[in-house]
Amino acid sequence: MPVPLEAILAPLMLLNRDRVWSLAAMATAGCICAAAVGYAVGWLFFETAGPWLLDTFNWGGEFEKAQAWIQAYGFWAVLVIGIVPIPFQTAMLLAGVTGMFFPLFLLATVLSRGARYFGLAALMLLLSHRRSPAYRRKRWREQAGS
Questions:
Q1: pLDDT at 137
Q2: Which of 93, 98, 117, 124 could form a disulfide with 24 if both were Cys (CB 3.0 to 4.6 A apart)?
């Protein structure tokens, strides 16, 4: 099971209020690059490895449903998958397999993942004054040591 990036970003943002926006920007940029690679993997390798994977794991029926959903809703499907807590690899690979228009896929990725990471940054700024005593002690030690 993939670990959501937010599990790492949230504590980093709480400890580094002055860097929340740059952390959100880096997370978004990294996700966009990974999404482009995932799209390419789906687009380039499905013909060779896809049928074997579907047969081996008996995913044929589920794959056809997911593929039909991406083909029917395209941009909106990627946008929703990018915001809700579903692994985004699903959208990347399916968009590549279905041959979704790549610029539209990237736009949905930028909007959804940007909303997710910049929304987290805003939330962490809002909540940072309520940090636990452990966070405050650690931060005080770091400042006192420098």
A1: 61
A2: 117
pLDDT score of 132: 57
Q: Which two tokens stand for residue 117?
A: 């990471």
Contact 78, 91 (CB under 8 A): yes
Residues 6+ apart with CB under 8 A from 20: 13, 121, 124, 125
> How would you class 25 by CB atoms within 10 Å of its CB: exposed for 0-12, middle for 13-18, buried for 19 or more?
middle
Residue type, 82: G
**Degrees (nearest 5) of the Cα angle 92, 114, 34?**
35
Per the structure block, which two tokens stand in for 146? Answer: 């420098």
* Average pLDDT rounded to a whole number, residues 23-52: 93
pTM of the model: 0.81
For residue 50, the Cα-to-chain-centroid distance in whole angstroms is: 23
Residues 82-136 have pLDDT tens digits of 999 888 988 999 999 999 999 999 999 999 999 999 999 999 998 877 665 655 5
Whether the CB-CB separation of 124 and 8 falls below 8 Å is answered with no
Structure tokens at 21: 């926006």
**SS3 of residue 5 by DSSP:** coil
